[in-house]
Amino acid sequence: MLKLQCDGWSWDADLQIIHADVRLEADGELLIDEPLCVDVGLPTLLYSMYRDVEPNRWAPPEEWVRMPFFCCGCGDPECRAYSFRVRHIPGGIIELTELEERPDGQPRELGVYKAAVEPYKSQVIAVARQFLAFVEGLDYRPYFADTVKVVSQLVQEDGGGIDAIAEDRDMVEKIERGGQSHGDSAH
């Protein structure tokens, strides 16, 4: 069982990041219970409802499908982050693997947790809706410029969210393949 909750939302206007008090429990284990930056990884968290994700906290912001779900309150995923690999497995289950990412090597697996997809989706969408309500009306200029647009699209119900990012699909496929798009050739 997985339980995700974000409360105490705040905006750091100087750093242009959104914080929340994040609490994440999985299989009865408390994984996160602290104030963190939530906007950098929120598009990735939403994307994980539909597709597998493999984080890379050193990826550029345009590779938003690779950001860690939550990062240090300074907003820099390179500083400190909570990274999770997500795999969709048969039977409507997702497998979350908590990772300690390393810049020059394979990530270390810290724990593996399973959850039903539907309750996971409902909790993630609830957090995304809180975020969208919170940022409405702010002069918010995030690290990834299209954060609000992507979050809005992915929140759409009945899987329409994943279709809504179709215009970015080539970019997403390129990121998922590790940087090579259909038209790219290796040199």
Task: Please explain how this structure is put together.
Helix 2 packs across helix 3. By secondary structure, the protein is of the alpha+beta class. It contains 5 helices and 7 strands, in the order E-E-E-H-E-E-E-E-H-H-H-H. Helices cover 25% and strands 34% of the residues. The protein has one domain. It has helices at 42-47, 117-135, 147-155, 160-164, 169-176; strands at 2-12, 17-26, 29-37, 70-71, 81-89, 93-102, 105-116. The longest helix is centred in the last third of the chain and has 19 residues, at 117-135. The termini are far apart. The strands form 2 sheets. A 4-stranded antiparallel β-sheet has the order 4-5-6-7. Strands 1-2-3 form a 3-stranded antiparallel β-sheet, covered by helices on one side. A hairpin with a 2-residue loop joins strand 6 and strand 7 (105-116).
Please count the beta strands (DSSP E, at least 2 residues each): 7
- Side by side, the strands of the main sheet go 4-5-6-7
- What is the SS-derived class? alpha+beta
Mean pLDDT: 85
Tally of contiguous helical segments: 5
* Helical residues, percent: 25-40%
First CA to last CA: what distance? 46 Å
Fraction of residues in β-strands: 25-35%
Low-pLDDT residue spans: 179-187
The gross shape turns out to be: globular
| Count of domain modules | 1
